[in-house]
Structures are given as C-alpha cells and as structure tokens.
Write a structure and sequence with these properties.
The chain is an alpha/beta fold. Helix content is 33%, strand content 24%. It is built from 11 helices and 13 strands. Strand 12 and strand 13 form a beta hairpin.
Length: 328
Amino acid sequence: MKTTAAITGVQGYLPSDVLSNDDLAKIVDTSDEWITSRTGIKERRIMKDGASSDMAAEAVKGLLEKTGTSPKDVDLVVLATVTPDYPFPSTANVLCDKTGMTNAWGFDLIAACSGFIYGLATGAQFIETGRYKKVVVVGVDKMSSIIDYEDRTTCVIFGDGCGAVLLEPTTDGTGVQDFILRSDGAGRNHLIQPAGGSAAPASAETVENRMHYVKQEGKQVFKFAVTNMADVSAEIMEKNKLSSDDVDWLVPHQANLRIIDATANRMGLTKEKVMINIQNYGNTTAGTLPLCLWDYESKLKKGDNIILSAFGGGFTWGAVYLKWAYNS
C-alpha cells in the first residue's frame, strides 16, 4: 500500500478572555443583531498578554502529551500564521525552543486563512517521501494584534486561537488523499495589511495612517470567497469521484456563515455534515480548521471522508481531501 500522511492527533488552544458582540457594540457602531445576521459570530477570544508562539506552545504541548510523542522525536514543524512573533526569527523556530522540539527544523508559512491547508499539504509531502516520521502542522493567529478596533468592517470578524495536528505515515488507506491549492496575487489589495513589510516599512506616517492593521473590502472578498471556496470543494470531490453521500464531513474556513452555507450547498451536503464553530471563536485565520477538527474530534470515525476548504487574503484558496485515521 502507498504511504500517506495521517493525522494521528489534534489539539487546540484558546485564550480565556472573551470579546462578545455586546462588548464590541460599546467600542464601535454595531450591534449583536448586525454582527450575527451578517457573519454568524456571537463572540471571539482575545489574547491580552503573550504572542502567537505562546498559543502554539500550549496547543503543541497538549498534542504531544495526548499522542504520547516525545518533543525530541518531532522531525519538522510547519507553522501557518500571518501574526508571527517577529519578522524573524520564524515563530516555528521560537515554538521549537519553547516546547523542547530541539531535533526539529521548521518554518513559517504565510497564506492567511488558507494557511493550515497549505501547511497540511506541505507537511504531508515530507511524510509521503519517507523522509520524516513525525511532522507537526500548526495554524495560529493573534489577529487582535493587527485589528483596528475602530474599524467595524474588520473588528467584528476576527479572534485569536490556535490548532495543531500531528502527521505520521500510514499504509492503511487513511490520511491525506489529495489536495488542490490555488492563489491569485491580483486580489491582494482587497484584503491586506498594507504596512510593516519592505513595500511600506514602519514609519511615523504608516502608524499615523493606521496602515499596520488589516484592511478589507468586504463585498469583493465575500464574492471571491463564495465562488472559489465552493468551486474548489466541488472540484476535489469530482476529481476523486466522491458524491455528497460519500463525504462525511466538510471542514470549512470559519469566516462567514453565508460562505460556509454556500460551500456546503454546492457540495450537496446537509448541515449535519458541516463543522461550524464560528459563533464561538469568530475568524481565527490559520487557526479555524484545526480548531474545528479539535472541537469535533469525538464525532470522527476512522475512515471518514473529510474535505477541508478555505479562502484567504492574497488571494489564496484550496481544499484537502483526507480519510480520518483513528477513532477517538
């Protein structure tokens, strides 16, 4: 049998501080009804102290303990984030130090909300070639660090959180089966953090003009997200000859309930087959998909056909088809 990369464990971490819609209504001109009707979000978690690597360290420590894995046995760490601790060194590097994964090398992967599926597909390659036996894939974002809480078009959407999975080789037919990943840089101005990179280095002017925060053209992003996330999810089903009956779970990026519904409808899936936790956490960017897997882990059965689908700034989008590898 072919060697594939199986998810053998999943763990999440969420900060304890909750920011509800009613809390936001005290900061900007919005309301619980307005936010809920347009996004499906009721509250989100905010990390008041600490960095992305601190959330990642908590998730990874829990993951290693849960799977009985020694930190020193991990070969590689792929960490998806748009809120790294520093421009350099990589947050993956910092994470390895904080968790004792001293024999691993790692790197950060920037694909916004598609970060986790990009990371999952990347990590799977190292397993499939036989090069490595244990790869940790992390999706983490401290979005509160780059959100303008005077901008109601963005501050109502995002929250902080982290999820991590362990990938190991298997020959039992489970694991990552296929993926389709796409990107289109022409979409960059519709969803972007304009300053802080080499195109617009930090200056008094960039800070004064609030250019270090996320800027989003909501209507354009919504239009592209609905189309591309639904299309790529249907495409991976068709490519692998999967009917809606064959798919046990859709794990959609948690950006907007209407986008999730559109994707599920395109795939012909009932709501019972769709993982949704957006109401509790909002959009945690690279953290949404692994947090869904963590929340729903007890419902997953070995052999379940799962489609993970995401759309993010850049633009980036894609889908991963995997067979779940264990019973909880």
